[in-house]
Amino acid sequence: MTLAGLPGAFAALLLLSNLVPGTLLAEGANAESHPRSAKPAANAGRFLWHGEQEQGGWIRGLVPEGTVAASLGDQELALAADGRFFAAFDRDAPAELELVARLKDGRTIRQSLAIAPRAWKLERINAPLRPGKSSEAFLKRRKPELEQIWAARAKDSQVDGWKQEFVWPVKGRISGRFGSQRIYQGKPGSYHTGLDIAPGAGTPFVSPADGVVVLAAKVPFSLEGHLIIIDHGQGLNSAFLHCATINVQLGQKVKQGQRLGTVGMSGRATGPHLHWSLKWRDARLDPLLFTGPMG
């Protein structure tokens, strides 16, 4: 939706609120995100948002004026001082979720948010699903690795990378897509949780947005290899797997476009590539919906 598609009085109100034309946070609009200099419009009585309303997608939005707490479904939203928020939808999100705002005057505002389904790439295998068996030694090693990953993803670094339009960490052949899955005689296996990019071994990659390094596995993990996790704020984080080298330190602040490491095949990988995954809280997201097509 553009300014031209809005009632005249409402469009004028938004312009008077110093919103930049073309960056309108209209309800359900699919516009570009706010520049950081733009002031959000006062919006009594409703949520405003824009983004990618589909499974694996996201929204950036603004809560109703006077909101003291807000949620999407059963997820509490973190609110910036100006009322802006980030939220996202898991690969298997339902067709509809509800945004709820609790106001300081005691009122509650509810709005429905539609989420479009995706046609995931499914490969049907005429063979039984055979769960892998892990040795006691592997499980002993794996437990502290998982604990480090969970702890890193639970950190809140109070950064604003979530407000930015994300850039590609590296460009190259896409060798694996988010959401793809094998079905074994009707039983689903695990789906692919990230995007695999294969630009060649040793190629540098960068941070897609501002953030803080919350994990830098200089000693390779058993599956992920050399692993980097960047907290972008508001529960949104990026993970980069199978690195050859790591060029950042735990706790370091990074800027969008800053070098993080080089592409490799450490951990469990069949060839050199960068596995980039995005999570918001417990929801796994499609990186392609953050960057757009590779230019």
Low-pLDDT windows of residues: 1-40
What is the strand content?
Answer: 25-35%
Total strand count, please? 20
Order of helices and strands: HEEEEEEEEHEEEEEEEEEEEEH
Distance between the termini: 25 Å
Please count the helical segments: 3
The gyration radius over C-alpha positions equals: 21 Å
Query: Based on CA inertia axes, which overall geometry fits?
Result: globular
Mean pLDDT, to the nearest integer, reads 87
- Structural class assignment: mainly beta
Biggest sheet details: 10 strands, antiparallel
Q: What is the helical fraction, as a range of percent?
A: 10-25%
What does this structure look like?
The chain has 295 residues and is mainly beta. Helix content is 11%, strand content 34%. It contains 3 helices and 20 strands. The protein has helices at 8-16, 136-153, 288-291, and strands spanning 48-52, 58-62, 67-72, 75-76, 84-88, 96-103, 108-114, 122-125, 173-176, 181-184, 187-188, 195-198, 204-206, 211-216, 226-233, 236-246, 253-254, 259-263, 274-280, 283-285. Strands 9, 12, 13, 14, 15, 16, 17, 18, 19 and 20 form a 10-stranded antiparallel β-sheet that branches. A hairpin with a 2-residue loop joins strand 19 (274-280) and strand 20 (283-285). The longest helix has 18 residues, at 136-153. The two termini are 25 Å apart.
Secondary-structure map:
Layout: H1 8-16, E1 48-52, E2 58-62, E3 67-72, E4 75-76, E5 84-88, E6 96-103, E7 108-114, E8 122-125, H2 136-153, E9 173-176, E10 181-184, E11 187-188, E12 195-198, E13 204-206, E14 211-216, E15 226-233, E16 236-246, E17 253-254, E18 259-263, E19 274-280, E20 283-285, H3 288-291
Parallel strand pairs: 8-10
Antiparallel strand pairs: 1-2, 2-5, 3-4, 3-6, 6-7, 9-12, 10-11, 12-19, 13-18, 14-15, 14-17, 15-16, 16-18, 16-19, 19-20
